[in-house]
Amino acid sequence: MGNIVIVGTQWGDEGKGKIVDLLSEHADSVVRFQGGNNAGHTMVVAGEKFVSHLVPSGILQGKTCYIANGVVVDPSVLLEEIDYLTGKGVDIGPHNLRISEKAHVIFPYHKALDNAREISDGKKKIGTTGRGIGPCYEDKASRRGIRFVELLDPEEFTDRLSLNIREKNHMLTSFFGADALTEESIHKEYTDYARRLAPYIANVPVELEERMDKGESILFEGAQGTHLDIDHGTYPFVTSSNTVSGNACAGSGVGPGRITDVLGIVKAYTTRVGAGPFPTELLDDTGKFIQEKGAEFGATTGRTRRCGWLDMVIINNAARLNGLTGLVITKLDVLGSLPELKICTGYTLDGKQIRYVPTSLKELERCVPIYEILPGWEEDISGILDYDALPETAKQYLQRIEALAGVPVSIISVGPGREETIILHTVC
């Protein structure tokens, strides 16, 4: 197995956690390279469900896991997650979980600002998770951030925290009319976090380079999806980091020449959480059926996911942006018992047919999907582990996705369990 990047091709929630867990068996290390605890990965192993928000899914396979510099980390959430996994019998500690000293730290003022803005924006709010992710990335860009390397330096930490608290409290009280935060309590709390997490902190790029030089393979685990990318997504209804495959390098300190494959995770239909344009959204009984059968509720927030038909304009955009070498189709089993299926192959915008995603959200909202109709299947395919045993109409659906994307389908997921998977083309 080479060095493989896993990315979502839609608006997140494509099932990346299961696939990373599955492929981790064949990798030596797993790296999380962007985002924060605004993402959640759900894995089902031997019937038991595990949910992670910061720790890479590979921890369940006993692999060395890295939280790289592109991630913003809430120490309280990370420590809770470590305790949660330990309580479930997962081996986790500084020997197999490493945190980049360059990763930025989320503080209470980040979360306070996140929520104050959402309240202030009212009906125009973005739909953020309120975890402080965006404000932390803002501080990173404005060079106000506090990384783990500063958190572990008492003098540096005290100086930076004092400056940030003064600035953030002014914004919270004077502009948003919210309560001020207390510097002393935050300092005490985070000093304790620094003590507990110090053994985990490492120079991640150097460790990854050493592993690759030994011929070890690395799996790069993306969070969210391509169309939530801060540059290439449906801005401003996006996350605060780059979710595309190119950021696997910048977000972990690995040169692009080290990457061998990029797998795009494609849910067999489309979902989206929160606000933002969604051309193929279904607001009828079919949408409700998919939502309920697919258990489309966020692992991080519990929010209901909007559901719609598969949108190949979105998938093709992701294929181009990420340089995909293979597709992984997830939740194919959810579509069972629908008499017919629809695939969006293009849009009509103001009477003109287009096959790209408009940058203007006003234009994207006016886009009307052009659908291709395919027959569905009645069978429950969740127990099928052989491609040839799938219903012919299910295979036709997969073949059409492959043809429209111009990228081969490598893996098919027909259920949440690790074993409920069909491997077509090995990537290991």
TrEMBL record:
Belongs to the adenylosuccinate synthetase family. It comes from the Bacteria. Its EC number is 6.3.4.4. Mg(2+) binds at D13, G40. It catalyses: IMP + L-aspartate + GTP = N(6)-(1,2-dicarboxyethyl)-AMP + GDP + phosphate + 2 H(+). The active site is at D13 (proton acceptor), H41 (proton donor), K140. Plays an important role in the de novo pathway of purine nucleotide biosynthesis. Catalyzes the first committed step in the biosynthesis of AMP from IMP. Keywords: Cytoplasm, GTP-binding, Ligase, Magnesium, Metal-binding, Nucleotide-binding, Purine biosynthesis. Binds 1 Mg(2+) ion per subunit. NCBIfam families: PRK01117.1 (NF002223), purA (TIGR00184). Gene3D superfamilies: Adenylosuccinate Synthetase, subunit A, domain 1, Adenylosuccinate Synthetase, subunit A, domain 2, Adenylosuccinate Synthetase, subunit A, domain 3. GO terms for molecular function: adenylosuccinate synthase activity. Pfam families: Adenylsucc_synt. Homodimer. Its cofactor is Mg(2+). This is Adenylosuccinate synthetase. Pathway: Purine metabolism; AMP biosynthesis via de novo pathway; AMP from IMP: step 1/2. It is found in: Cytoplasm. SMART domains: Adenylsucc_synt (SM00788). The keyword Manganese does not apply. Substrate binds at A299, T300, T301, G302, R303, T304, R305.
